[in-house]
Amino acid sequence: MPQLETWHFLPQIFWLAVCFITLYLVMAFVALPKIGSVLAQRKEKVESDLDAAEKAKMAADAALEAYEASLVGARETAHMTIGEAAQSNAKATEARNHELDAEVGAQIEEASKAINAAKSQAMENLASMAAEAAREATVKLIGVDVAEADAANAVASVKEG
């Protein structure tokens, strides 16, 4: 094998050193700076994305807190409105009940007056009917025709007694 001969060692080591140094310089001054800049850009992009995500999360949390606060306020307003409406309805109902009570009381009073008037009219008619019946009964029973005034006086004396 020719590569294992000792007189080939020195040129092989020389070319190995030349290739290694050339490759090292190319990598150190060309490839690695480009790779480093790409990695730095990626790192900056990731950090800016994380910062943006953190800011968005904080904004979302603030919006959620504002939403919950407005929801609590809306619920309180709704409860107050419902309470006020209930009180207003209760007052209106109470006022209407008082009006209806007054109307019903007036109707009852009018009906009582009408009943009393009808009762007195019936009592007057009853007295005249009783006097007429007594007059007819005396005529039929004993055959005597009694005057209307006498029959009315007799019924009045029985009614008072």
Helical coverage, percent range: over 70%
Number of strands: 0
The gross shape turns out to be rod-shaped
User: pLDDT below 50 for ≥5 consecutive residues: which ranges?
Assistant: none
- What number is the mean pLDDT? 90
What count of structural domains? 1
The amount of beta strand, in percent, is under 5%
Radius of gyration: 62 Å
Largest sheet: none
Count up the helices: 2
Using brief descriptors, characterize the structure shown.
161 residues, mainly alpha, 2 helices
Task: Write a structural description.
The chain is mainly α. Helix content is 91%, strand content 0%. It has helices at 9-142, 148-160. The termini are far apart.
In brief, what are we looking at here?
By secondary structure, the protein is mostly helical. 91% of the residues lie in helices and 0% in strands. It has one domain.
